[in-house]
């Protein structure tokens, strides 16, 4: 067991957008038992605790930010903990990379999460945002989640005990932000080749329509209404491919903000506000940020 502390840690190193100011520190732990040391350590560091995995859905402001990043790098390998003729329940650490987990499931013929192919980040991050893609969401297969919170310690919550909504995860009985340590998913047994084909097809579609290799935080705005695409509204209003300083809306998909040339958060927020104002003025729709703002 060990905890590593990085002082004055830049958000540009912990987010897929590669931008943002400096946190007071980053605390990295690799075993669930390390959490017992967190309250005392965080008290000594000061600042507000902020749990981050791979930072694939975050936009941090510039400058000095009063946060201590908590990185739960618990990469416990997937393991089957329960099995029936048709289903299997798999337990996996929060720090395990999501693409690697999907490949692990596909190889064994465990179906249910393959729609998330192409979503970056960790399993814990996917749970924390109830990640979704191509009609698949984490909530569809989640069985339980193990979390740490200083007032209750380490506890396992069933899916029925948590709130999972569109890009939202919370636990009604826990006030502070919990640290997700691991999760269990109930998956369907099927032909591995069928799962791999779905993953390959989804990846091909994403590569053709989304900037999967760019420095991006995924879709930056939520769809404003059922059947109304934020990306199409942005495209309609002329923001597809629009550049502002070192940031831009992707020429592949207008709802993807990308860092093209050492962009700053200031430039990013200016472009986002410009888009929100224009879309509201021209279409009447108000665009709400899907990306989480830090600072």
Automatic annotation (TrEMBL):
FAD-binding PCMH-type domain boundaries: 19-190
Pathway the protein takes part in: Cell wall biogenesis; peptidoglycan biosynthesis
Needed cofactors: FAD
Active site feature: 167, 219 (proton donor), 290
Localisation per UniProt entry: Cytoplasm
Signal peptide stretch: none
A GO molecular-function annotation: UDP-N-acetylmuramate dehydrogenase activity
Pfam families: FAD_binding_4, MurB_C
Reactions mediated catalytically: UDP-N-acetyl-alpha-D-muramate + NADP(+) = UDP-N-acetyl-3-O-(1-carboxyvinyl)-alpha-D-glucosamine + NADPH + H(+)
Family to which the UniProt record says this protein belongs: Belongs to the MurB family.
Stated name of the protein: UDP-N-acetylenolpyruvoylglucosamine reductase
Gene: murB
């Amino acid at each position: 067991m060990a905890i590593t502390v990085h002082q004055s840690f830049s958000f540009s190193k912990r987010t897929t957008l590669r931008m943002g100011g400096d946190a007071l520190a980053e605390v990295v732990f690799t075993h669930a038992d390390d959490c017992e040391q967190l309250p005392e350590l965080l008290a000594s560091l000061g600042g507000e605790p902020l749990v981050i995995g791979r930072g694939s859905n975050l936009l941090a402001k510039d400058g000095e930010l009063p946060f201590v990043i908590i990185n739960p790098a618990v990469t416990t390998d997937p393991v089957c903990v329960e099995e029936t003729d048709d289903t299997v329940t798999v337990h996996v650490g929060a720090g395990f990379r999501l693409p690697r987990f999907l490949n692990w499931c596909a190889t064994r013929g465990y179906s249910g999460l393959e729609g998330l192919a192409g979503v970056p980040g960790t399993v814990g991050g996917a749970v924390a945002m109830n990640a979704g893609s191509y009609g698949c969401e984490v909530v569809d297969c989640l069985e339980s989640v193990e979390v740490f919170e200083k007032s209750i310690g380490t506890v396992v919550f069933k899916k029925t005990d948590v709130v999972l909504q569109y890009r939202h995860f919370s636990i009604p009985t826990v006030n502070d932000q919990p640290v997700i340590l691991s999760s269990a998913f109930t998956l369907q047994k099927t032909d591995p080749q069928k799962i791999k084909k779905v993953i390959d097809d989804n990846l091909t579609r994403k590569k053709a329509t989304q900037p999967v290799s760019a420095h991006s935080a995924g879709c930056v705005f939520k769809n404003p209404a059922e059947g109304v695409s934020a990306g199409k509204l942005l495209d309609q209003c002329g923001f597809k491919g629009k550049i502002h300083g070192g940031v831009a809306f992707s020429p592949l998909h207008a709802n993807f903000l990308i860092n093209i040339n050492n962009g700053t958060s200031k430039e990013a927020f200016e472009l986002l506000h410009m888009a929100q104002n224009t879309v509201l003025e021209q279409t009447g729709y108000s665009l709400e940020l899907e990306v989480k703002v830090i600072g």
